[in-house]
Amino acid sequence: MSTIIVSDSACDLPDAFVAQNPIVKLPLNIYLEGKKFEDRTTELERLAIYQKGSLNKNHEATTKPNTPEQAYRFFLNEIASQYDFAIGQTVSEAVSPNFENWIMAAGMIKRDYNQLGSAGGRMGSFGIRIINSGTVFAGQGILAAYSAKLVIDGVGNIQLRRDIEQFKQYIRTFAVPRDAVYLRDRALQQGDNSIGLLSSMVGRALDISPILRCYQDITEPVVKVRGRVAAVNRLFAYAVERINEGLKSPFVVISVAGDPTELNQYEQFNALKIVAKLKDVRVMTTVMNLSGGINLGPGAVSLALATNNETRDL
């Protein structure tokens, strides 16, 4: 039986890793300067968008979830025709209705598959399960990478879902935005009032950079650091500590709303690479997905790993 992991395109992973593993992405809807397109962009295409300045705050940009019909067509035409079983993993249901829409799509597929499969010459059955990742962006990448390893290891489909549901509680996802005012403005466009105008203005005036954490569907600032460089270095130092303690999965995913080679300017990033190599942990860097870039802003850095360390702050 062939099994595939389906994440939405908010999932941050290098293109090469996705191509080499049982992972596919269902494209979200991007609206950029009046134009709508499905986000099937490559890392190079996203990097060009960031470098062009198309997501700067003076440009109109937003992201929309899949409709149930879009998810239905994707799973039926691109997944059910090639695989026997699919596990869909959506961005946190706290920030998007994707989970609910995919659940609706799965119901439609279960209703229609036998009839449509016979008409199209398909043989056998198709199973589908939808999981709310509870996280975003780089965190989705951690979940997809772990899930793909289980598939490759031959874990059965019933146990597969149980292991994924259990594992996702260990995922910690963090982000350092470049501009707190940009973050506030984009959040308001998405109906999120959690970041106030006063705090964002003070943050800019005093060069205070918040470090955000998404954990089990809750996104909140967990610490404020003087200076963006110091904030990013603090995030990488946190990752070094967790790697030394031992991770629940041998992956760290780091995404940048820009050029990932710029990470080499951070002292603690180089320390992270050294420790990861010693501990046989794979650090994967990638150009941030467009949904993440739109919401966090150009230049934002996100990091995710899986740990059972319950430390709230960095």
Describe this structure in words.
The protein has 314 residues and is α/β, with parallel strands linked by helices. Helix content is 42%, strand content 24%. The chain has eleven helices and 13 strands. The chain has helices spanning 15-19, 43-52, 68-79, 98-119, 138-152, 157-167, 180-189, 197-205, 228-245, 267-278, 290-296, and strands at residues 3-8, 23-26, 29-32, 35-38, 61-64, 85-90, 127-132, 171-176, 208-215, 218-226, 251-256, 282-287, 301-306. A six-stranded mixed sheet has the order 10-9-8-13-11-12, with helices on both faces. The protein has a four-stranded parallel sheet with strand order 2-1-6-7, with helices on both faces. Strand 11 (251-256), helix 10 (267-278) and strand 12 form a beta-alpha-beta unit. Helix 3 crosses helix 4 (98-119), helix 5 (138-152) packs antiparallel against helix 6 and helix 9 (228-245) runs parallel beside helix 10. The radius of gyration is 19 Å and the shape is globular. The model has no long low-confidence stretch (mean pLDDT 89).
